[in-house]
Amino acid sequence: MTTLGIIGAGHIGTALAQAATDTGYDVVLSNSRGPETLADLVDALADRPSRRGTVRAATAAEAGAAGDLVVVTVPLKAVDDVPVEPLAGKVVIDTNNYYPERDGHVAALDDETTTTSELLQEHLPTSRVVKAFNHVLAADITARRTPPGTPNRRALAIAGDDASARETVASFIDELGFDVVDLGPLAEGWRIQRDTPGYGADLDAGRLTEALAAAKRYREM
C-alpha cells in the first residue's frame, strides 16, 4: 500500500495527510470545493523536511479511485455526496461524529439504533468501512506519534465489520505512531462516540480499553 486517498481536507484530513506523507505514503487530497482551492495547503504539506511521500490535490472521485486506502472525513450531512463507485472494494476509514446542531437530527442516531459509521457503510455497500480517528484531536495525530514499544504509547480505537479491513487500518495506525484497540464490529463504535470516557482522552491501550468498557449509551446517562 502506497497511496492514501483523503476525501475532506479539514483539520483531521490535513493532519492525516501530514502524518501519512511523513510516514512515506503518497497522498491524494480532496475537498468539496475543487482541487484548485487546495493549492496552498498542498504547497505547505509538500514543503516540509519531514515529508517522505508525495501529495497532490484532486476531486473526491479521483482521490477515492487513487487510494489504496481511503479516508472519508466529511460532516455527516455530506455523507451522501461521497462517491460510491470509486470506493468499491476498498477499505474506507470513517472519522465522523454526530453533531445535531451541525448535521440536523437523524432519528436513527437519536434513538441509537445505528451509528455514524454504519450509515456510511450503508452508503458504500461494496466498501469495507472502519471507524477510526474520530476521538482524537487533529493536532495529536501529528504531535503524539511515537515508535512501537514506546511506554504509555497513545492508543486509538477502531471498529469495523470486516476483520481484514480492521487489520489493514490497525497496521496503518501503527505506522503513523499509535497503538490500536479493536472494538470489533461497526455497531460497537458507539463506545468511542462523543461524551464517552475515551473520547478525546490521551490514553494508552490499557487505559483506553478500560474507558471503552465503561462507556454508556446516551439514553443511560
Automatic annotation (TrEMBL):
Q: Transmembrane region positions?
A: none
Instruction: State the species of origin.
Output: Geodermatophilus tzadiensis
Name the InterPro entries for this protein: NAD(P)-bd_dom_sf (IPR036291), P5C_Rdtase_cat_N (IPR028939), STEAP_metalloreductase (IPR051267)
* The name this protein goes by in its record: Pyrroline-5-carboxylate reductase catalytic N-terminal domain-containing protein
Which SUPFAM superfamilies does this UniProt record tie to the protein? NAD(P)-binding Rossmann-fold domains
| Recorded superkingdom | Bacteria
The Gene Ontology terms for molecular function here are: oxidoreductase activity
Q: Which Pfam families match?
A: F420_oxidored
Domain Pyrroline-5-carboxylate reductase catalytic N-terminal, chain residue ranges per copy? 4-98
List UniProt keywords, sorted A-Z: Oxidoreductase
